[in-house]
């Protein structure tokens, strides 16, 4: 099984940025834990602060991978293009958010990805990525 985690803008600052919301661990450290925990899965990781690069990566993997775990971060609430890319590909996508976006600003209650995603996981911190991976293993 081949799954990619795609993270959007500012998630490269995990462990440094707003630790009260996002925690103290870098994503790279957490990704190593996921690779150890899910040895039977070929896990890949991609992060970009650039909307077009996220769309290009979705198109690149969207017909050959078994799953995409997508945290588009702020682009979730603004990018029709990322939503359209998720809709256009065959690979199922699980939308993940570290924080509970419904406890935050009103504009974060809108997602252009949720309507075309396999499912949405939010508010469980980094555990959301593990839950998303497990959802693909159950299929």
What does this structure look like?
Keywords: Amino-acid biosynthesis, Aromatic amino acid biosynthesis, Lyase. Substrate binds at residues 71, 77, 84, 98-99, 108. Homododecamer. The protein has helices at residues 19-22, 27-37, 51-61, 80-88, 127-138; strands at 2-7, 42-47, 67-71, 93-97, 119-122. Helix content is 34%, strand content 19%. Strand 3, helix 4 and strand 4 (93-97) form a beta-alpha-beta unit. Helix 3 runs parallel beside helix 4 (80-88). The protein has one domain: Rossmann fold (3-Layer(aba) Sandwich). The protein has a five-stranded parallel β-sheet, sandwiched between helices. It has 139 residues and is an alpha/beta fold.
How many domain modules?
A: 1
Quick one: how many beta strands?
A: 5
The profile of the biggest β sheet is:
5 strands, parallel
Task: Give the N-to-C terminal Cα separation.
Answer: 11 Å
Principal-axis shape? globular
Please identify the structural class as seen in this structure.
alpha/beta
CATH architecture: 3-Layer(aba) Sandwich
Low-confidence stretches: none
The number of helical elements comes to 5
CATH superfamily: Dehydroquinase, class II
Give the class-level CATH name. Alpha Beta
The average pLDDT score comes to: 93
Helix/strand order: EHHEHEHEEH
Helix content: 25-40%
Beta-strand residue percentage: 15-25%
Instruction: Report the radius of gyration as a whole number of Å.
Output: 14 Å
Spatial order of strands in the largest sheet: 2-1-3-4-5
Question: The CATH topology, please?
Answer: Rossmann fold
Binding site for substrate: 71, 77, 84, 98-99, 108
EC number: 4.2.1.10
Site (Transition state stabilizer): 17
GO molecular function, one term: 3-dehydroquinate dehydratase activity
